[in-house]
Amino acid sequence: MYSIDGLKLSICKSCGALCCKHFPPMVTVFDIVRICKFLKIEPRKFIKDFCECLTLREIVSKSPYKTLKIYVNIIENLLKPRIVSLLEKTIFIRFKLIDDHCIFLNNDNSCKIHPVKPMVCRVFPLKPYTSILEGRLRIAEACPLSKHPELLRKEFEYFRIYVQECKTHLLVVLGLDFEEVLRLIEYLMKIHDELCKDVWGGAQSASTH
Fold first, then answer.
1. For the whole model, what pTM was predicted?
2. Binned average pLDDT, 10 residues per bin, the chain of 209 residues
3. Which residues are within 8 A (CB) of 35 and not within 5 positions of it... i.e. 6 or more apart?
């Protein structure tokens, strides 16, 4: 008899890991801290080896979706020029794709960093309805798990954390260049060490499990 996690895994594998192909996940500074601690790697090397850093304009220009371009144009018309200028120079970080699939995807469609995979992956097939800042969600119908919402209890719980981390991430990185973002990540890693020592007795944060 399958456990809930075992059943989810069997359903998840049935689609061939479509969510890990074609679309590189965008990561927050909090994701990077957890992954770097897990891999025991320095943030600069991690970003250089596994990620690409893009401005919002570069992300839009590389996107095949016209709707994304239209959406960004609407945002620019609604926001004050100062906010738009900050957004345009803000660095966004996402995983690299290798042969059109996530750099952390194994040949058997498992994840190399599953215990600390990015929050955007952890909550899938839950997705923001429009903007992550709005906090509303929808279920991606292309995912076979969308037909089994009763199995998504953990994903719904993590979605609240995901929204909060994304809001905080955008607040602190808005207008920062790469070196400034890197210094922020390095500082967060030091804080992470202290928090783990004080709160978890040296163990990893519960959010990584």
1. 0.78
2. 69 81 89 94 94 80 58 55 64 90 91 93 82 69 85 88 86 81 87 58 40
3. 27, 46, 113, 116, 118
